[in-house]
Structures are given as structure tokens and as C-alpha cells.
Design goal:
This protein is rod-shaped. By secondary structure, it is α+β, with helices and mostly antiparallel strands. The protein has helices spanning 3-8, 11-17, 22-34, 36-56, 61-72, 88-153; strands spanning 158-165, 173-179, 184-191, 199-208, 211-218, 229-233, 240-247, 259-264. The chain folds into two domains: 3-132; 158-264, Immunoglobulin-like, CATH 2.60.40. Strand 1 and strand 2 form a beta hairpin. The chain has six helices and eight strands; from the N terminus they run ααααααββββββββ. The two termini are 77 Å apart.
Length: 268
Amino acid sequence: MNIQEYISSGILELYVCGALTEEESKEVSNELKKYPEIEKEVEQIENSLNQLSTAAAPYNPNQLLAIIKNKLHLVDNSKTIPIRKENKKTNIVLYIGWAASIALLIGLFSVLQDRNQLRENLNVVNAQKAKMEQQINDAHASAEKKEELLAIFRDKNMVTVPLDGQEVAPEAYAAVHWDKQSKKVYIDAKNLPTPPEGKEYQVWSLTLDPLTPTSIGLLSNFSDDENKVFMLENINSSQAFGITLEPKGGSESPTMEQLYTLGTVKTS
């Protein structure tokens, strides 16, 4: 610890004036016990403040005379005409005391302002640091998720079904990655437009003869998923997959006028 820097920081003046928090005061008290130089500096500050208080106190000679007479048990019945005399020395000391007190207050106020500004700056830095750490964590999590998805899509047991855009959205595209063993499908919906308010996409498993659609789930929270990859369960013997835009919460049967993508499973 650099004792001189600690003394010059202004924290001891704030400690003597009681301007520190309880925790900060405890820290200074601990330093006083460990370092005699700091304890001596605090004593000097306290003595200086006491001297300033004494010098700044108003001097009343009449009051002092009355106290002396009272101590000597003297009674003065004569009437006297008080003559006011200027005590230049007393006035000079008084002015110096007030000037020193004002200078000390200005110094303490400046130190307090500096400390408050430092605290604000520290809070800003800590907030920026926390935000940056969160961004780094999010980036790592996103990278890990992408690596996991790549491993899934490259699995030799995975059946990939491309879903082309239909009349309502010719430019739309999606892909279904179907793991028949685990009975899971991964919907890659990166090239689907963001659904409007109150709507969401619903995925259908289809058998073609006769045409029978079965819902396997919704692509909920579409805008929140950065990768736009959704995992759903599929226990059906699917021959095709389709995605429609439905009211939020889904529908019992697909709205064919809102069929966005459709694709058939290739038979081996």
C-alpha cells in the first residue's frame, strides 16, 4: 500500500468529517490500526479542525469580564458607559479562522464531488463490462448451438426434406431434417418471412393417399430464435411436410390458402 497516496487521496479528511459510508469508515479504521503514519495524519487533521473552530468562534470581552467577576465574587454597582474598542488582533484571527474554514469546506466539497464522479464512472464501467460479458456468453452459446445443429444435420441417419415456397409465398423456403430413429424433426425456417402479429407457423405431417394432415407443432417465438431452427416430435409415417400460417395457438386443420411451403419425402 502506498501510504502517501492514501493520505493525499482526501479520504482521511472525509473520515474525520463523517462523510464516508459505514463500510468505508470501517476500512479507514482498519488502516489506522495498521499504519501509525495514517493515525498520526488523522490526529493532525482533527487538531487542525479544532484550532479552526476555536479561531472562528466569536470573542466577547464583556462576557469574559463578567465570568472573571463572578469567579472573584465582585459586585460592581457603578454605572459605566461601555466604550467599544476595536481589537485588531482578535479580528484578524477571526478573519483568518473563517477564511481557513471556508477553504477547508471548499476542499472537502471538491473531494466529495470527485469521489461521486469516480463512483459514477465506476458504475458505468461495471455496467459496460457486464454487458460485454453477456454478449460474449451469448456469442459462445450461439456458436455452440450452431456446431450442435451442424452435427445433427450431418448425421447419416438424418433424412432431409426441402420445402419449396407455394403460391402465397413463392420466395419462401424451409427444410425438414428428420431423424426417424429418435422421431424428431428439426425445422430450418431461416427463409420464412416473419409472421405478422397474432399469427404463427404450424408444421404438418402428411400422408398422400388419402391426403391426411397431422399437426406436429408450432414454430412459436419465431422472432426470438436467432438460428430459426425448431425441434418437434414426429411419430408419424410421413410422406410429406407442409407449413401453414395460422392464428396464434394453431388450428385443427391446415388453412390451405395460407400454405407457405410444401415438400415430399424421397423414397429410397
